[in-house]
Specification:
- The chain is of the alpha/beta class and 236 residues long.
- It is 29% helix and 19% strand.
- The longest helix is centred in the last third of the chain and has 17 residues.
- The protein starts with 6 loop residues before the first helix and ends in an 11-residue tail after the last strand.
């Protein structure tokens, strides 16, 4: 059964033909104007890709720092030991450790948004695959969360660097910022996100790659974006 929508949501949705695509500036204006909750709503990007999510050579995964951040800090943990662990803690990690941290998470503790690991720690972290994998929290070299430079990665992710991966339907979801952001900042964040996804197109993908882009706020309706008019990665 479809979720019951609020009167505010329905009124906002009726103000625009959802089949009609808007330029990114218009789309952002639409989303901002309809983000009227009592809290600062998050603006989300949903990018539909023409990929086969069952094929390893067509998966889309990585990390990205948007030009103007996302309007929130992230809780980052680090699997590291010794001086590296101390440096990671100083860089903003909420928890650091090796086997003891693995055991803590295996016991049910999940109060973090990003997990960063030094390659030497993966012999411990690998045991958490069934716990972290389904939640999209398993450290990976492709997303920049398995790295020799743990303190630097902790600092970047704590400041709002995004980690993303396609879902089983071939969609990539990312945060573009907050509805309170200036129009121009949200526009630049959205453009940067789309350009980045374009730039990491898997070589195995044939035909059209990006099928659609939609924007929405936490409580507001989605709007289709005319992404074809956006600058390509090659143009920058």
């Amino acid at each position: 059964m479809a979720a019951k929508r609020s009167k505010r949501y329905r009124k906002a949705a009726e103000a625009h033909d959802r089949n009609a695509a808007l330029g990114v500036e218009q789309a952002i204006a639409f989303v901002k104007a309809r983000a009227s909750a009592k809290f600062d709503e998050t603006v989300d990007i949903a990018i539909k890709l023409n990929i086969d999510a069952k094929q390893a050579d067509q998966l889309v995964r990585g990390s990205l720092s948007l030009p103007h951040g996302i309007g929130k800090s992230m809780r980052v943990i680090a699997f590291a030991e010794g001086e590296m662990a101390e440096a990671a803690k100083a860089a903003g990690a909420v928890e650091v450790g090796g086997q003891a941290l693995v055991d803590k998470i295996a016991g049910g503790w999940m109060e973090f948004d990003v997990a960063v690991a030094h390659p030497s720690m993966m012999r411990f972290v690998g045991k958490l695959g069934k716990v972290l994998g389904p939640k999209g929290l398993m450290p990976s070299p492709k997303s920049g969360t398995v790295t020799d430079k743990v303190p630097e990665a902790v600092g970047e992710f704590a400041a709002g660097k995004l980690e993303f991966r396609n879902d089983k339907e071939g969609n990539v979801h990312m945060v573009a910022g907050k509805a309170s952001f200036d129009q121009d900042k949200l526009v630049e964040n959205v453009q940067a996100a789309v350009r980045h996804i374009k730039s990491i197109r898997p070589q195995a993908v044939r035909g059209e790659y990006i099928v659609g882009v939609h924007l929405s706020s936490t409580m507001g309706p989605g709007v289709k974006v005319s992404y074809q008019s956006e600058p390509s990665a090659a143009a920058n």
